[in-house]
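Before a colleague's protein record goes any further, I have to sign it off. What it holds is a sequence and that sequence's fold in token form. Would you go through it and say whether the fold makes sense for this chain? The record follows directly below this note.
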Amino acid sequence: MAKTLTFKDLNITFKPHPITGDLIVTKDEAAIKQSVVNLLLTNRGERFFNANLGSSISSLLFEPLDYGTAGMVSAEIENTLKAYEPRIKVLAVNTVPDFDQNGFDIELIFEIIGREDVPLNVAFFLERTR
């Protein structure tokens, strides 16, 4: 009988469970997706006691909106996840500049290491907010 790995993380909202009062837990695929998004949206130097954790994607948003910058964003995503998320293997990062919305459409495809699941897909829109 094959044994599958399970993953648990605290939910990012930190809301208590209505009955038990414990913090809500995010499990398996949802936990890993939450971790991936948190890593990518954390700037380097933001975390106390671990200044290298995070990515420099936000600094790339102030570069010209073109396919060259899209390639740099893809490389930064791959490098960040390779360094800080050992539970996954990145299969593809598709970054396309959206000239009308002034940002990047990003599709990340990865598989969870140690599980026989189908590859997971995380898609989001990345834009500068300042």
Observations:
- The first strand starts at residue 8 and ends at 10.
- The mean pLDDT is 84.
- The radius of gyration is 16 Å.
- The CA atoms of residues 74 and 93 lie 6 Å apart.
